[in-house]
Amino acid sequence: MNDMAQTAKMLSRKEGRVGYVIFNNPERHNAVSLEMWEAAAGMLEQFKNDPEIRVVVFTGAGGKAFVSGADISKFESERSNEEAIKRYNLAVENANAAIHEFPKPTIAMIRGYCIGGGMGLALCCDLRICSDNSKFAVPAAKLGLGYGYIGIKRLVDVVGPSFAKEIFFTARQFDAEEARVMGLVNRVVPTAELETFVTNYADTISANAPLTVNSVKFIVGEAVKEDSKRNIPRCAELVKQCFASNDYTEGRKAFMEKRKPMFTGS
Q1: Do 201 and 215 have their domain in common?
Q2: Are both 219 and 238 inside the same structural domain?
Q3: Phi and psi dihedrals of 263, rounded to 5?
Q4: Residue 66: strand, helix, or coil
Q5: N or C: which end of the chain has fewer CB within 10 A?
Q6: Going by C-beta distance under 8 Å and a sequence separation of 6 or more, which residues neighbour residue 95?
């Protein structure tokens, strides 16, 4: 571990080519306050501009929760009137948008509770890998909360319309196996193996050609947009960059020489 940074109840660190963003409010199951959302967006901006970082992992501290949503204890101070609600929602959407639009691969490493805003955050990541004791829910219908188009669309894009309705209509907790069946998570692993599995996945991705990986991320993002909003020329440009890169030459040479390629992202 190196380059540890701390901002209130948010932590970030770098391990090789992998950056970590850690929600550190375990006494409240990593419920997220306004300042935590704002800090998360700042940490992500640092990783975005760091050429050494190729993958970012999001997780929660304490072993019992990923993120359990908004810190309801702060609703009176942070979401009690229209102006406060607007500021809080903007901070949440800014953080979620920063994750969703992040140009490098992201992984949500989920252990325990992944509730409300925690699920919203996880859906903004490219991959979701959870422990077998994880629980998922969006309790908006139990709180009388409105849930906007963007957040619902991200859920529909991952699990489809019918499961999205079930998650919202029932507002109940779904276990890890149910989440896997819905396609809400990519992998379910035993709790004791979660960290090792995610580290290996992140290392595997970070060792692959960044131009290829990042171009696929962009193109998949365009594929789920409406036809009129897709940037097809940019997709073609990114593919062309892959074929014109030093990494493409290195990948072919390494294959012929039966060795691991050393990709530089150029």
Answers
A1: no
A2: yes
A3: -85, 140
A4: strand
A5: N
A6: 37, 38, 40, 41, 44, 121
Structure tokens at 52: 């050494």
Give CA–CA dist 85/62, Å, rounded: 28
Q: What is the reported pTM?
A: 0.92
Give yes or no: residues 163 and 232 share one domain. Answer: no
Q: Where are the beta strands (DSSP E) in the chain?
A: 2-7, 10-15, 18-23, 55-60, 65-67, 106-110, 113-115, 127-131, 135-137, 174-175, 187-189
Q: Are residues 224 and 132 in the same domain?
A: no
Structure tokens at 37: 């959302």
Pairwise CA distance, residues 236 & 222, whole Å: 12
- Quote the tokens at residue 123: 């859906």
Q: Give all strands of the β-sheet with 135-137 in edge-to-edge order.
A: 65-67, 113-115, 135-137, 174-175
| pLDDT tens per residue, range 93-148 | 888 999 999 999 999 999 999 999 899 999 999 999 999 999 999 999 998 888 88
The residue segments making up the domain with residue 225 are 208-256
